[in-house]
Amino acid sequence: MNLRTCISLALAVSGLPAAVAAGPVEDGWSGHLRYRHESVDDQAFARDARADTLRLRLGFRHGLGHGLAAGLEFEGIIGTDDRYNSTANGETSYPVVADPAGLEVNQAWLRWQGAAGGATLGRQRLLLDNQRFVGNVGWRQNEQTYDGVVADFAPRPGLVLRYAWLDRVHRVFSDEARDPLARERRLDAHLVNASWQASGATVVAYGYWFEDEDVATASTRTLGLRWTGSHDLASAKLGWTLEYAKQRDHAGNPRVVDAGYFLVEPSVAAWGLTAKLGWEQLGGNGSTAFQTPLATLHAFNGWADKFLVTPVNGLDDRYASVSGKFGSGRLQDKLAWTLAWHDFDADLGGADYGREWDASLSFPLPGGFSGLVKLADYRSQGFARDTRKVWLQIERSWP
Description:
4% helix; 18-stranded antiparallel beta barrel; globular; Porin
């Protein structure tokens, strides 16, 4: 389903009556401006990358009545120089900074909203749970969006059922990427996600049948359970995340995939600090491994992005993090910081993949802008090469 087909179907659906009464949808526009400097020192390259990019996103939403609304959003990115490999500029002697210049339709959708659920047709962003399996890769300048249909139904308080059929994924490398497979992928993906929330905890059961029509070896079926929650104590809050999933080959994948995934992440919040310990494992057998190609991968396994594709021997990531806020006067509790450490090993054989330190500081700026300083320092132990990344970012959203 290409964009033209999505819009045609959306116009057809807009003529259908709404089965359930819903309130009116107000018209509105949205905008987001983000400037970012990213530098990359990767020992696999003789040159360091330096990227300065500016992204502007403009969107408009219009209520059509009877529970229907339509939305359209454009995204434009410009870069100031070519001292980095954007995947579209041909500068392969530099490390990759996947923020190519370009102008695209980011979203174009029609949504019907009823009293207990709704459905969205067209090009849209899609975020499931913590985005470990399906996300919009919001960290990159060019957002990942999907062509398809997403429906949600809440038959009772605390229970949300969600189904998505995806026909195409528009990847962060944009339509300008030199590799056609990096631009977008044709899919036949069926995603089912059921969430139950009660008594300070949430249980999610999911099944993702993912067929990649362009790369058959990427087609998989994943079934899993996720449990998150928190419990208040006298002077602290205990939290937890437990997750397990099993992934197998699907839809004519010529490779045998039989890999497991688990996550154990306890946390404690006290005295203005939140501390976490984590153990995430993506299984591998030496020829195939547990993969999450639609995820917001930057949020997992270190900000240096050394494990965007799980190695064939799998990945064992044991990590710790602490975060908090500080400031005084007008900046009271408005300076937010995070410090994290990762220890990477292979799931099969236990090979040492290296260590990584990550740190960030976010802060408000005049005029409604916000700033971010962020860094990642990965030290290899035989996997990839030592890599340091630094980001300086300024952004603002409207309205």
